[in-house]
Structures are given as structure tokens and as C-alpha cells.
Fold this protein.
Amino acid sequence: MAKETATYISQLVATNPVASDSVSVGDDHLRMLKTVLKTQFSGLTGTTAIASSEAELNILDGVTATAAELNYLDITTLGTSADSKALTQASGVVTIAGDVVVSGTTPKVTIGDAGAEDTTLLFDGNAQDYYIALDDSADDLLIGLGSTVGTTPAISIDENLAVKTYGDVTMTGTTPTLTIGDAGAEDTAIVFDGNAKDFHIALDDSADKLVIGEGSTVGTNEILTITDDTVTIGDGAAVDTYLNFDGNAVDYRIGLDDGTDKLEIGAGTAHGTTAAIAIDSAADMTLGGYINFGDEQAIRPEIKDYSETVNAIGGTGGGTQDIDLTAGNVVTATVDTSTNTFTFSNPSASGRSCSFTLILTNGGSQTVNWPSSVDWKDGTAPTLTSSGVDILNFMTVDAGTIWYGFHSVDMK
């Protein structure tokens, strides 16, 4: 009798039973085979047939994962069998049909294999596509519009960590802040790369100055520097430096005329022309025009080599002749033709002394009438010479309510 003892398939002997064995031995073999199958496949306790083919079952060949590890792919709650495919592959393209979470202590996602080719993370939008990619030919990291690496970039970063933007940059928020530098002992700059000229705004760290200058090299061709509470225009070079005010109809300037070593305030933008004020190294000031005090004070002046404006009326021609104090405080006039009546206008405000001198020629040749507000010595107007010059002075301290008249000289 040829009958083995077996519990698992690996213990079965393929040549048993032999032809000479009795029928009862064959019965024993059948019962043993049932026991082996039930023992070997003890997990098959249901009544559902296994429909997997041998090829599908062979997919598990070599799999050493635990049940818990295999459960990582348990996504039966997604619904249909098509949905249950978390990863699909077609023509070398792998599609992930759900969210991806990379966890762990130091999780990392690597795109590329160090080969000489571009690698891209593409965002496939409804109206616009965007990408984050390595442009391998330029060795730049790009963020851009579209799906083609190297075209329509928005931001690029090179191997020196230099960042370029290819569009507008808007900073929003409650208190938006742009910080340039990392507190290290180095210059930091914003360079404006112009067609013909470059300019920069920079921190000159060695001098602890904020500078605005020409060119791209910090510390050269400085136009304006700020240090603590001091703003400096110029860099000590033998050139004019000035601040221009570009007006609609008229321009003005404040600047250093380096050729004359004077500070000028003037009209226009050309130094040395139409200067209103020029100040030299001795702090002496030269005026290129008049100062209108607007009836305000000039306190403690020392006046030297001065002159007064003359209001030259000429012939009075008879009738009423007004003496306007805004035209000058020295007045010349000639009485002729017929009776002449003088009036005075625009004196200083009350509480301020206002006076003028009248040099009158041939005042006695015609009748001369004075304003009733003039008070003369002994209450009588002076007798004027009919052929000659009289000098008269008038003063008021109450805006012309009372004028005090003085006949200083009768020049024959």
C-alpha cells in the first residue's frame, strides 16, 4: 500500500496511490486531499467562487507586505471599481486619482533623475496653465505661465540664488513689508537697469548710509545719501548739484553752483541764471530781486549802501493827483496847467509809522490843495515857490486818519 501522510500540499506525493492499491486506499487518499485543501486554504470559509485567473493571482507572487500594509491601498469607499484605481498608467504617464500626502519626519518628493532634461510640475487649469519647473539648459528654477518650460516665465532663480521677476509685483496686506538683506555686513541694492544709464537705491553697509546714485556700483556717483538725521546731495565731486521743482509754467531750483561755490535759489533749472538768492561760503547773501515783506517786520537790520524807490509823477496836469505809497516813498512831481488837488493812498496799517517825501517843483505856480487829513504847523499850509523846488514830508501812525505835514526846504 502506497499512502503518504500529509497536511499541506507540499507534503503530497504525486505518484500515490499506485495501481495495485485497493479501493479503500483510494478512499483514504480522497479524504486526505480534502483535509489538505481545507488546511492549506483555511481562510476560504464562504460560498463565493474565486474568479481570479492564474495570471491575476500571480501578481501577488513575491509580495511580502503585511495585511496592514496592504490596507494602505484600501480605497473601496471611493465607489465604483474605476474609482478604486488610485494609480493608473498609460503610455508611461501615471495618473493619481486622489489627494497625495507625503508624511514622515523629513518627507521629500524628488522630480527627475539627474539627467540632462527639464523637469516640471504642471498645473492644468481650465483657462490658464501654470508650471514650476527646472529649465535644465539654463540651470534655472522657473515659475511661469503655460505648459512649456522657458516661455512666459514669471519668476526665475539661478544657481547664485539671484531672483528675477518678469512682471509687476504687488504686496498686499495690513502692513506689507519688503526686506532686502539678512543683517549681514554687506551692501544691499535695488538697481534700475536702464538703456543708456543705470541707477541704484542701496544700503552702503560700510558707511551705514542709504544712497541714491548713478550706475550699479554702490558707493560711486552718489546723488543723495541719508545718514541718521542728515540728507546729503552730491558726492564731493566738482559738479553742480541741485533740486529742481518742475512747475507747469515756471521751474525753480535750489542747488550748489560748484563753479562759484554758492548755494542758489532761483527761477529755472540752469545754475548761474535768474538767481533769487545766492549764499557764499562766508554766509553772505546776494539777492537777485526784491523782498516783499507783506507789511511784516524786518528786525534789527543794519542797512548799508541802500536806496529808495522814486515815484516820478512828472507834470500833474491839474485836477486831482493821487500819491500811491505802494509806488514809492520818495515822490517827485511838477505843478502845471491849473489848480491841483493831492490825495494820499495805501499808507501802512494803523499802529505803524508811514512816511514819504514829496519833491515838488513850481508848487506855487498854481493853487495846490492838500487832503483835509493833513495837519500843518500852526494849522496853515506852507506857501510854495512858484519857480523852484519845495521839499515836503508827511507822516502818519493811524493809516492816514491824520497826516503830519512838514515843509522842510524851499529850494529857490
Observations:
- Residues 241-287 form one domain.
- Confidence is low (pLDDT under 50) at residues 74-79.
- Residues 23-40 form the longest helix (18 residues).
